[in-house]
Design brief:
It comes from Streptomyces rugosispiralis. By secondary structure, this protein is of the alpha+beta class. The chain has seven helices and twelve strands.
Length: about 300
């Protein structure tokens, strides 16, 4: 398969090796650790496949405990915590080479009527007139580095920043810890709601911590910090499709003690708030020999 969206759907299609035990692939890529969004998305697939499919997930809470190794399969063990009249709860432990690397608790809720209210979506330009991420990098550097081009070919999401990327110290000075992007899968993801929910879970970890970095360094290019997701929480408010445009608005209320907190809100084109996200990440200055060149 050459379509990155198809590869994402395939990545989320776990092998069932026992009633409540699943195995997921981990691509052998030139990364220091397995991408956290992949592990969270696969764990949510495992949880969802032990339910009757009639109750959509409404929240998840997860901890990243150890870095996963690229290229090594990950086993997901599901505990059926509760099957109530309205709610279903599952706990998932992700294991790689005998060690727990991640755990997740997910709650599923039968849809029911209730009050309808939300804060409005920010007034931002639509995605069609915004440059792609590759266009922004090419405009800044005059060319697209081969490492970035390879990443772009594998990327399952079209990403378009609402505001022009900042590249210099002068542009960074005084910037607020906020970021916003339009995103959608680069191809169709099918009609299974669980696939769309897990694909969005994957996407939610891609750039949420950008908001922490905005005031201190360019989002793309050489990186001055070792960054790692520590925990991740999501609340799913309404049905959605991840292969349609959604706005991912992010802000960081605080960064201190080597950690940064980020909050995200995901809206559809109609302005409906679909998902709320909160994540804390590790931020440690890199020594010169450890500098990363890929950014993002």
């Amino acid at each position: 398969m050459t379509n990155p969206a198809e590869r994402l759907v395939d990545l989320l299609d776990l092998e069932r090796i026992e009633l409540d035990i699943f195995r997921g692939r981990s691509p052998d890529e030139s990364l220091q650790r397995v991408f956290g969004g992949q592990v969270a998305g696969q764990a949510l697939v495992a949880a969802g496949r032990t339910t009757d499919g009639e109750r959509p997930v409404h929240s998840l809470h997860a901890y990243f405990l150890r870095p996963g190794r690229p290229g090594v399969p990950i086993v997901y063990q599901v505990e059926r915590v509760r099957d109530g009249r309205s709610f279903t709860t599952r706990r998932v432990v992700a294991i790689q080479q005998g060690r727990t690397i991640f755990n997740l608790t997910a709650s599923f809720h039968s849809p029911e009527p209730g009050i309808e209210q939300q804060l409005p979506m920010p007034d931002v330009p639509g995605p069609e007139g915004l440059p792609t991420l590759a266009d922004e990098v090419r405009a800044h550097l005059g060319t697209l580095p081969e490492a970035f081009a390879r990443m772009e070919r594998r990327q399952p999401f079209d990403i378009r920043y609402v505001e022009r990327l900042r590249w210099t110290d002068e542009e960074l000075r005084g910037a607020e810890p906020r970021s916003a992007v339009w995103m959608r899968a680069v191809g169709p993801l099918g009609d299974d709601p669980l696939v769309h929910t897990c694909a969005l879970t994957y996407a939610s970890d891609m750039m949420l911590l950008d908001a922490v970095r905005v005031p201190v360094e360019p989002l793309w290019g050489p990186r001055g910090f070792d960054m790692a997701s520590l925990d991740h929480a999501m609340w799913f408010h309404r049905p959605f499709r991840t292969d349609e445009w959604f706005l991912y608005e992010q802000e960081s209320p605080v960064a201190t003690g080597g950690r940064g907190l980020a909050r995200g809100r995901i809206y559809d084109r109609a302005g409906r708030l679909l998902v709320s996200v909160v994540q804390e990440g590790l931020f440690r200055p890199l020594r010169p020999a450890e500098g990363a060149a890929d950014g993002g």
